[in-house]
Write a structure and sequence with these properties.
With 499 residues, the protein is an all-alpha fold. The protein has 18 helices and no strands. It has helices at 4-20, 29-40, 44-50, 56-81, 88-95, 98-116, 119-131, 142-162, 164-195, 213-227, 243-270, 283-296, 311-327, 329-350, 369-386, 392-420, 431-450, 461-489. α9 runs parallel beside α11 (243-270). The longest helix has 32 residues, at 164-195.
Length: 499
């Protein structure tokens, strides 16, 4: 039975599809699979998981069961029903209303601003590990971090303006480099065991974690931070070939593989680094240096000055190369996030929720150049603001927690669609998938509540918690005010408004 609500929904979908026809269809299944690998394997959260120590396997298994599998199923369901440019923003807007859709896009946009803002911190940390103690100053110099951030954000703006025809090759390269380096990481403890330089290694040991606020905070951070992201590439649906089929297949192909990577890579880190000694900014390069050092020794000099035929020289060569390959993940994944986030104001402009200025496309590359410019400027401001008054590790943790808490708020809407959207919209799946969505919703809510608790040493735990809560609540209040102001100024409502 066709209802007025479902007719309005289909009409609104058709409007988005009409706008999307001006975009280039650049992404095929192979590109989408590699993009999922790049976006869902978040290197930052290997360190968070390692903070759980030997209990990480139990944490990963619970997170996969209660969050990761429900996420994959819900995203596959919504991709099939609404393969639209804008992804989760359009899903929420069409399932509920314009206001909720706008706030979802707002939180997704803020997530990318703050997440991409860590690129300077990550870059300087990785370079210091690759070069050695002589470069340790880079990871603690705020001015140097800011200069590096400016350079990378400017490069991402340029790449986003050129479009996915160029950008997809960079993201594919980043995915392959990430997989190669993680393979080296996973193999390192096995090689150490074979050579007798590692006393024991039990990657699948099951140890029950203590039920403390700290352990729950670690669990929720590794669960949401590491296992989210499947829906993000759907923002490019209007730039995909056969998005209803290929986006869904990309999720189902990569999910099992990614789950195994997280478990074994975390075990490899813990084979060489104790949780209390972990560098949360660069846990993988830290583990690689220690693991390969125990194999053949890693001198703190330039590896290219060593004899490549010796075991010492070979290990000294592998560590910097592996770190460089791993580092490629950051600018490439951030570039995908940045390009996707620039599409959100464009699509909101199509829906008359933002000025038409954001919808203007480059005449040749068909990319939203004004939206890209605005996003780049705000991201640079976020990079600078986060370094005020705190050390690099605390700044990194603040940016990451703020960003992923905004992301989690958008996920509450994602998981709510299957069981809370009006029945007349025709978006509710069968009971088993609705139950999976409820599980994902509750796990995400737990993450939001516990996000205010730090998992690293900070100058003031109370001050840290207040910063997290104030920024998240204040930013969402600001987003709501922007939406209400825009609606008051609008001289007309969209003909196919979803209410």
């Amino acid at each position: 039975m066709t209802t007025d609500s479902s007719i309005a929904l289909r009409t609104a979908e058709a409007e988005v599809q009409a706008h999307s026809s001006a975009l280039r269809k650049e992404l095929g299944l192979f590109d989408l699979v590699l993009a999922q690998v790049l976006l869902v394997i978040v290197l930052d959260y290997f360190g968070t998981a390692a903070k759980a120590g030997s209990a990480h396997v139990v944490f990963w298994l619970v997170a996969i069961l209660l969050f990761f599998i429900p996420l994959a199923l819900v995203v596959a369901h919504l991709n099939r029903l609404m393969p639209l440019e804008g992804g989760l923003y359009e899903w929420a807007r069409l399932a509920f209303n314009d206001q909720l859709g706008f706030l979802v896009a707002w939180n997704l946009w803020l997530f990318v601003i703050l997440y991409v803002a860590v690129i300077g911190l990550v870059t300087t940390t990785f370079v210091s590990y690759a070069i050695g103690p002589a470069a340790a100053w880079m990871a603690s110099s705020k001015w140097f971090i800011l200069v590096v951030s400016f350079g990378f954000v400017a490069a991402m703006m340029l790449l986003a303006s050129l479009g996915l025809r160029v950008g997809k090759w960079l993201s594919n390269l980043g995915s392959i480099a990430t997989l190669v380096t993680i393979a080296v990481l996973i193999a390192t403890p096995l090689l150490n065991r074979w050579r007798g330089t590692l006393a024991e290694y039990h990657p699948l040991r099951l140890v029950m974690p203590p039920l403390t606020v700290f352990s729950l905070s670690v669990f929720t951070k590794m669960m949401f931070g590491a296992l989210s992201g499947f829906e993000y590439v759907a923002i490019f649906a209007g730039e995909c070939r056969n998005p209803a089929r290929n986006l869904t297949r990309s999720v189902l192909i990569t999910a099992p593989f990614i789950a195994l990577i997280y478990i074994f890579a975390t075990s490899s880190i813990l084979a060489f680094v104790r949780p209390q000694d972990l560098d949360v900014v660069g846990p993988i390069p830290q583990a690689l240096r220690l693991g390969l050092q125990s194999l053949g020794g890693v001198p703190h000099v330039s590896p290219f000055l060593r004899d490549m035929g010796s075991s010492v020289g070979l290990a000294a060569f592998i560590v910097p190369v592996a770190i460089v390959l791993l580092f490629v993940n950051y600018p490439t994944s951030f570039s995908v996030y940045f390009s996707a986030s620039a599409r959100l104001p464009m699509v909101a402009g199509w829906d008359h929720l933002l000025p038409d200025w954001f919808t203007r496309l480059h005449p040749r590359y068909r990319t939203p150049v004004n939206s890209i410019l605005f996003l780049g400027c705000v991201t640079l401001a976020g990079s600078a603001a986060a370094l005020i008054g705190v050390g690099p590790q605390e700044a990194y943790e603040l940016l990451l927690t703020w960003g992923f808490t905004f992301y989690a708020i958008a996920y509450l809407a994602l998981f709510a669609i299957p069981f809370l959207s009006p029945k007349a919209r025709g978006l509710r799946p069968r009971l088993w998938l609705r139950l999976a969505a409820v599980s994902g919703f509750l796990m995400t809510l737990l993450y939001v509540v516990l996000s205010i608790f730090p998992i690293i040493d900070v100058e003031s735990s109370r001050g840290y918690s207040l910063k997290i809560a104030a920024v998240v609540l204040g930013a969402n209040l600001l987003g709501w005010m922007i939406y209400r102001a825009g609606r008051r100024k609008s001289a007309y409502d969209r003909p196919a408004a979803i209410s």
